[in-house]
Structure formats: C-alpha cells, structure tokens
C-alpha cells in the first residue's frame, strides 16, 4: 500500500523532493521503522537528522528533513523548512483527504483505554485507524494523522496535555466529528490554576469540532458545567454519560466481578446491557462514554455493546494475569494487576478500588491467607498540594480491604507514614530497589497491584514480579 508519494508529500508540506519515491508508512524511530516508511527526523532528546543515514540503510523510502545530513545523498529526502511543521502539514493533508469519521478523545484518566475501546467497538462496524501507543502530544497527534490511510471508516485520535494551550491546536488539526472527555481530575496541577483550569483546557478539544459535531461529556463531574458551556459555545450537539439520572447515557446498575464488570443502563429510552472484561467502575463508565460515541457516529448499538465485551486492557493499563510459581503445583499462583503506565489521584483511587474488590485465594501459600498487596509510586505534577494528595490516599475506603501497601518515591513516603502500621510495607526511593524485594514479599494466593507515574518506572517492579512466574508443566511457555 502506498500512503504517500513524493509528489503528494511535497505538495502537502511545501517541501522539495529530488526523486520519485513511495512510502507505505511514517516513522520517527529507526528501531521500529519498517521497510518503505517515510522517516521523520524530529529533534527531541536527540536530533533525528543523526539517524537519517541509518533509516535509509534500514529500508526507509525517504526521510523528512530540514537540512541534508552529511554523507547522505538528497535523492531520497523531503526537504522542508522545519521538520515538526512538516509533520503537522502531512497530518493536516491526511485529515483533509480521508473519508473517515473522526473521534477525538481527551481526559485526565482513561484516554488511552477509551481509545482502545473505541478501536474495538468501531472495528466491529468498519475499518479503524488509531495510534498503537499513547501518541497524544504535539508530535504524536500529527504522526497519527500522517499515518492514516484515506479509505478508513473511522479514526480515533487521542489528545493529551501537560500545560495550558496544548489541546486546542491539536484538536483543530484532527477536526473531530465527535469529541469525548472521559474525566477531569487532579493531574498536571503544577501547570494549572486548580481543577477549573484543567477543565477549561480539556474543553478546548471542542475548538476543533467539525460543524454540527457532537460533544460526549462525563456528566457526573464537579466541573461538568464548564465542559458543557464550552461545548454549547461551539454549537455542539451534547451527549452526557455517567451514573446520575440526568445523563443521556447512564449506568443504573454496575456489578463488579472478579474478572469482569457488568452494567445495566439506559440510553435515552433504550435499555442497555454490556460488560467490560476487566473489573472496575471507571472502566464501566468510560465504556458508557464509548457507546455514546458509537451512537453519535450512527453505529448499531447492539453490535457496539457486544464488541465492547471483547476489549481487554493492555500492559501497564490494568492488564490482569495469572503467574504460576510452581510448574507442577499450578494452584501455587498469584494474580498481577499491571497498571504501571501512569497515575494521578483519580486513577490510583480507581485502581485501589479494583484491588479491594479482588479475591485472593487462601490455603495455597506460606501465609495460608491470600493477601491484597499494592506497590504504588509517586504521582507527579500535582503542584502545591502534592504532599496532601499523597497522604489522603490512606483515607480512601478501598484501603480498608488492602493488606499491605509498598511505596516507592519521596512523595509516596508521605502515604507510607500515614498508613496504619499493619498495612505499612516497604518504602524505597526507587523502583529498582523495590524490584529486588518482590520475590520475598509475595506468595501464592496473593493479588498484586502495581501503579505509579511513568517517570517512577514501576514497570521494573512489574517485570520483577513476572520473572517469578514459570510455565506450568505441559504448557506452551
């Protein structure tokens, strides 16, 4: 498949080409580049121009550059004034030529899982384009758009932010027909004037809505009025979702089971029954928002609900897995909840609620009684209230059912000190130090949650726990 010809890419970017080439994809990383990709030499931690020669050697069709690197012939280059601007131009051109109905997704919690739910739900009723990873920033959104084939039916674009003023230009680039806001919660508070400021920034996703577009908004938030005012100001059709009776799409009964969540609800006058294959009220509510998006796009409601039940969270985002500790005695296992990709007070509270509802197994390990154990790391970018927000975790109702809490990082030391002594596990400054202890801390029958901000590298704790597992005898490994 040809995604970009040299002529099309030059016309889109206003750049200069020196030969005729065809690219089947767009890449910013030589490590994941596929043969035939257009390599984009972005300047971030390192200058992508330093890797152009390697990209071409690895089979790139061409490279998008702002200067000709030493030793590289110009025949397979697309020369532009600025690489970031060129990537944005490619994204804009791809958006203009597609027939797809476009969904924009933002929120403090649940952006990526909702994007993946939408990939599954919309994929049951057409061809879907969405980023494989959480590409939601100033280069991730245009990259996702630049990779979009013209003939897909739906596109799902995740849009994030760290500072004020980031969402509106990305939304204008994506031009969504439907914009979903999952939740607004304390996150990146260091850059904003409280929760209202975060809400106004999230609501900027409506700035890019296509005329006649739909705003799908969580209707249960303290800042919902801010979101609704912003949607009305853009002339959007509005669909609210949540658990309160006033919502257009509402969950009337949420049953959290050990491995699934079953939801009964209403969509206007129509009854709803659906499940998500992971426990957690937050997944159930975001799933309701996803079904509202699908409805706004004209999708069949029954097919959408059935497809939602086939979605599973990915690594680092609530994935649950059983780890066998003995190749023969397969009852000697523990359950891992890998939610290590990121954390803020809302998402951590939701994850602790999932752990509190889990069912450890007794009489299979050294301790005879299975335990609920949490490894949690610092929540970043919370501003002046960061210490209080970490201490407050000790008072969450879910903590009553959690047996041991291990804490990583200087801020989580505040929680560690606030916990009752019987719940207080280890505190370490780093994830590497904590990872060295897990083999001695865990036992068969335990259910273990791992969660923290990405920079805390709690994935290293997850990896250490996974290394405890063995393949059961007769298994495939």
TrEMBL record:
UniProt keyword annotation of Mitochondrion present: no
Keyword DNA-binding applies: no
A cellular-component GO term for this protein: cytoplasm
Keywords: ATP-binding, Cell cycle, Cell division, Cell shape, Cell wall biogenesis/degradation, Cytoplasm, Ligase, Nucleotide-binding, Peptidoglycan synthesis
SUPFAM superfamilies for the chain: MurD-like peptide ligases, catalytic domain, MurD-like peptide ligases, peptide-binding domain, MurE/MurF N-terminal domain
Residue span(s) of domain Mur ligase N-terminal catalytic: 25-67
Family matches, as Pfam families: Mur_ligase, Mur_ligase_C, Mur_ligase_M
Domain Mur ligase C-terminal span(s) in chain numbering: 328-453
Residues binding ATP, per UniProt: 107-113
Signal peptide range: none
Localization: Cytoplasm
Matches recorded under InterPro entries: Mur-like_cat_sf (IPR036565), Mur_ligase_C (IPR004101), Mur_ligase_C_dom_sf (IPR036615), Mur_ligase_cen (IPR013221), Mur_ligase_N (IPR000713), MurCDEF_CellWall_CoF430Synth (IPR051046), MurE/MurF_N (IPR035911), UDP-N-AcMur_synth (IPR005863)
Pathway linked to the protein: Cell wall biogenesis; peptidoglycan biosynthesis
NCBIfam families assigned to the protein according to its UniProt record, in alphabetical order: murF (TIGR01143)
Family listed: Belongs to the MurCDEF family. MurF subfamily.
Function of the protein: Involved in cell wall formation. Catalyzes the final step in the synthesis of UDP-N-acetylmuramoyl-pentapeptide, the precursor of murein.
Protein name stated in the entry: UDP-N-acetylmuramoyl-tripeptide--D-alanyl-D-alanine ligase
Lineage of producing organism: Bacteria, Pseudomonadati, Pseudomonadota, Alphaproteobacteria, Rhodobacterales
Chain's gene name: murF
């Amino acid at each position: 498949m040809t995604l970009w010809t040299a002529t099309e890419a030059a016309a889109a970017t206003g750049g200069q080409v020196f030969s005729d080439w065809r690219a089947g994809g767009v890449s910013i990383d030589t490590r994941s580049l596929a043969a035939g990709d257009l390599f984009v030499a972005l300047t971030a931690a390192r200058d992508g121009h330093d890797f152009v020669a390697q990209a071409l050697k690895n089979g790139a069709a061409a490279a998008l550059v702002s200067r000709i690197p030493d030793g590289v012939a110009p025949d397979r280059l697309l020369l532009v004034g600025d690489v970031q601007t060129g990537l944005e131009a490619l994204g804009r051109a791809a958006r203009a030529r597609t027939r797809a109905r476009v969904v924009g997704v933002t929120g403090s919690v649940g952006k990526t899982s909702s994007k993946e739910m939408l990939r599954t739900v919309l994929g049951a009723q057409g061809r879907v384009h969405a980023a494989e990873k959480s590409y939601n920033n100033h280069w991730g959104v245009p990259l996702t758009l630049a990779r979009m084939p013209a003939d897909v039916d739906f596109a799902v674009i995740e849009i994030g932010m760290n500072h004020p003023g980031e969402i509106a230009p990305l939304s204008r680039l994506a031009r969504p027909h439907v914009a979903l806001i999952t939740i607004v919660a304390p996150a990146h508070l260091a850059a904003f004037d409280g929760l209202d400021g975060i809400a106004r920034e999230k609501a900027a996703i409506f700035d890019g809505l296509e005329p006649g577009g739909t705003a799908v908004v969580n209707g249960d938030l303290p800042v919902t009025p801010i979101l609704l005012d912003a949607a009305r100001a853009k002339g959007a059709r509005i669909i609210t979702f949540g658990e309160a009776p006033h919502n257009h799409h509402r969950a009337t009964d949420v049953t959290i089971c050990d491995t699934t969540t079953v939801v009964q609800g209403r969509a206007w006058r129509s009854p709803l029954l659906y499940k998500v294959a992971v426990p957690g009220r937050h997944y159930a509510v975001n799933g309701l928002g996803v079904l509202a998006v699908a409805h706004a796009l004209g999708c069949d409601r029954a097919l959408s609900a059935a497809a939602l039940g086939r979605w599973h969270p990915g690594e680092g985002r609530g994935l649950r897995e059983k780890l066998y500790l003995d190749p023969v005695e397969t009852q000697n296992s523990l359950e891992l909840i890998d939610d290590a990709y990121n954390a803020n007070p809302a998402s951590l509270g939701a994850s602790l609620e999932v752990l509190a509802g889990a069912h450890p197994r007794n009489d299979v390990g050294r301790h005879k009684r299975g335990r609920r154990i949490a490894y949690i790391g610092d929540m970043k970018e919370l501003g002046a209230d960061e210490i209080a927000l970490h201490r407050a975790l000790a008072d969450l109702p879910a903590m009553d059912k959690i047996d041991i809490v291990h804490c990583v990082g200087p801020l989580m030391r505040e929680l560690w000190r606030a916990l009752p002594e019987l719940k207080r596990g280890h505190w370490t400054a780093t994830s590497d130090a904590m990872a060295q202890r897990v083999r001695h801390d865990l036992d068969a029958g335990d259910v273990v949650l791992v969660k923290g901000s990405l920079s805390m590298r709690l994935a290293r704790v997850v990896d250490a726990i996974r290394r405890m597992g063995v393949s059961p005898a007769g298994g495939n490994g």
